[in-house]
Design goal:
By secondary structure, the protein is mostly helical. The chain folds into two domains: 255 residues, no CATH class; 88 residues, Immunoglobulin-like (Sandwich). The protein is built from 18 helices and two strands. A hairpin with a 3-residue loop joins strand 1 and strand 2. Helix 4 packs parallel to helix 10 and helix 15 packs across helix 18. It is elongated. It starts with a helix and ends with a helix.
């Protein structure tokens, strides 16, 4: 296992960096993947290396406290840092264009998003994260991991895998659940790890005979108490701090939404009190009734229609939308794209102009956070070409 770890980590670092450079060339340095996210992913890889390579890995076979440091690095340092690096986008851009399009078509089906949005997803990943942590510290499984390299590799793989799923859910917005659910899940993880650490601290004899046989009962028990303290205090502190940070972010989001609602109510009251606004509504209704087609976009369309037609395929739009004249484009995740030039709004909230439609194509999550349309890394020139093509559709 140890021999393969450096190769895997180097391959992941190269793959991530290749995709990040490709994105920066298309959208500008730091646009799609901010430098701090790239740094977080790199730090996560370093944490995995420290946990799984000598000298810590060699020491873990002789001391439970060293083995506990390995586990805490994987569960509470490497996993959240890797998640904060948002590896999905740069890793996909490291692929060739055909493979990237195939991956987008696969993801566009929305199966994983629907699963992550289900009510049972957060409890399931929490149970997996906590359950794996407890299970591998049971004497039988723990001794098996010490005696078998394959079992030891499975121990670390399942710990890191379930931790990645847990932190992805609570940190990266993998679900549409309220932020409060993430806060509760993190604090519940702290509550679940604490008793395990306490049991190790207050045990009257060593749990693991492998360590006792090497160092003696007294030394093994002292080392076990140190390991329990590491899990109980520093480990619990990481969960608590993360929970506080999520709680603060949650409260800030609630405050922003409240301010936005207050501003909207004030704007509606002001508009309702102005005669000019009522006259505008009357004129708009009459014009809509008498005109066979709604107003076309007022801004000049400057993009390349032919290139836009190809970009719609390249960026995978046809996987989610029905497009007139494209037989394979029968997606139902998003609305059909035919007649988009005659619509009054984009995404139900922006005026239908070239600038606003291009903005929606480039930054859908910024315009409407949490909607099903992903940020595909579309550049501004590409967005204008796609707009020109969409406006040409009947």
């Amino acid at each position: 296992m140890t021999a393969a770890v450096p190769a895997v980590l180097v391959a992941l670092a190269w793959w991530y960096w290749r995709g990040t450079v490709a994105l920066w060339r298309r959208r500008g340095r730091g646009a799609a993947v901010p430098a701090w996210r790239a740094g977080a992913f790199s730090a996560g890889l370093v944490a995995v290396a420290v946990a799984l390579l000598p000298p810590l890995d060699a020491r873990a076979h002789a001391a439970l406290s060293a083995h506990m440091v390995q586990h805490l690095l994987l569960l509470l340092v490497a996993a959240p840092l890797l998640v904060l690096g948002t590896p999905g986008l740069p890793l996909s851009w490291a692929l060739t264009a055909p493979r990237r399009r195939a991956l987008r078509r696969l993801v566009a089906g929305g199966g994983l998003r629907r699963l992550a949005a289900s009510p049972g997803w957060l409890p399931a990943v929490w149970a997996g994260h906590v359950g794996v942590m407890w299970a591998w510290h049971a004497p039988g499984l723990y001794e098996a991991a010490l005696s078998s390299p394959a079992v030891h590799a499975a121990e670390h793989a399942t710990m890191l895998g379930t931790a990645l799923a847990f932190w992805w859910t609570v940190l990266a917005g993998a679900t549409r659940l309220a932020r409060g659910g993430s806060v509760v899940a993190v604090w519940a993880a702290a509550a679940a790890s604490g008793p395990l650490g306490a049991l190790l601290v207050f045990a009257s004899r060593p749990w693991y005979q492998t360590y006792a046989a090497v160092a003696g009962d007294r030394a093994a028990l002292a080392d076990q108490q140190l390991a329990g303290l590491l899990m109980w205090v520093p480990g619990g502190a990481v969960y608590l701090v993360a929970g506080v940070a999520l709680f603060v972010a949650w409260m800030a989001a609630v405050e922003r939404r409240a301010e936005q609602r207050a501003e909207q109510r004030a704007a509606r009251r002001a508009a309702a009190g102005k005669l000019a606004a009522w006259m505008t509504i009357v004129v708009a209704v009459v014009a809509a009734a008498c005109t066979p087609h709604v107003d076309q976009p007022t801004a000049e369309v400057t993009g390349d229609i032919a290139r836009g037609r190809e970009l719609v395929r390249e960026y995978g739009c046809v996987a989610c939308h029905a497009v007139p004249g494209v037989p394979v484009a029968q997606g139902r995740v998003g609305p059909p794209l035919g007649g988009i030039a005659g619509r009054r709004t984009v995404a139900g909230q922006l005026p239908n102009t070239t600038e606003q439609l291009a903005r929606w194509i480039r930054e859908p999550q910024e315009v409407s956070p949490g909607n099903v349309m992903p940020d595909l890394g579309v550049t501004e020139p590409d967005a204008l070409d796609i707009v020109a093509y969409l406006y040409s559709l009947e």
